[in-house]
Amino acid sequence: MNSLPHKHLLGLEDYGADEILKILDTAESMREILARPIRKVPTLRGVTVVNLFFESSTRTRISFELAEKRLSADTVNFSSTGSSLSKGETLLDTARNIEAMKIDIVVIRHRAAGAPHFLAHYLEAVIVNAGDGCHEHPTQALLDVLTLRQKFGSVKGLRVTIVGDIAHSRVALSNIYALKKLGASVAICGPATLIPRDVTSLGVEVIYSIDDAIAKSDVLNVLRLQLERQEAGLFPTLREYQKYFGVTRRRLEKAQRPLTILHPGPINRGIEITSDVADSEHSLILDQVTNGVAVRMAVLYLLSGAKQ
Prior knowledge:
Order of helices and strands: HEHEHEHEHEHEEHEHHEHH
Helix content: 25-40%
Strand content: 5-15%
Strand order of the largest sheet: 7-6-5-8-9
Radius of gyration: 19 Å
CATH topology of the largest domain: Rossmann fold
Number of domains: 2
Number of strands: 9
Largest sheet: 5 strands, parallel
CATH class of the largest domain: Alpha Beta
Distance between the termini: 9 Å
């Protein structure tokens, strides 16, 4: 069985270009399974996966569940609501008790950055990061890159700009790691209050004008504006954000060439992106969703092989 030289997928910072490409190539094979009349293979029969989601999720949670079921793994879904956590049990005790039930792989989403790394230190099970705080979201970045590779053949040389709330985005950091390692040119764009001060140390360009970003880019990866941040006063109003940073068809029509649009979801239509862009011929948003299942199948398959 193929495997990766890593036991876990905690983030893409420690993954090299060859390892990322191996996941993408495997995901292409998994796409073929998803196109079959019977979309199921016995590859992970006997492997038990628990999905520990401590934050709300739709695409990521369902995508992991489908990936596990398509590979014939036994799946257990955990929700913090109504669990022993509400009675004061710690994350570590919860995870250790679950592992004592002979779990092989733990998929975790948590509001605290570093939670997957914490569990990896204490548990024997394989840990897959499904998003930790404002840190990383590695499988989202992998599916984004896969989607671009399917359209362009390679991401090498592509000019990709990530637009929106960079400071609080786990998607942005993982995308920067993956795209840079595969040879893309990466820029970020957003209000100064939503741009980390030291982000240029990652080798990215900072652009403060959405029109300049459109003029310089082949791809815009538009992030969800986290509306809960509005309470912190990091930008004046939603209307002003839309005026200065919203991706609209009128703005795209000024570009000298058609741009490709990505969005990790959920979409705040009419704020960071308008419906006529999100649903346009330039958008690969639904392709991203389909690729999410294939990428997560690939990750589970490869890490399960590393475990054996």
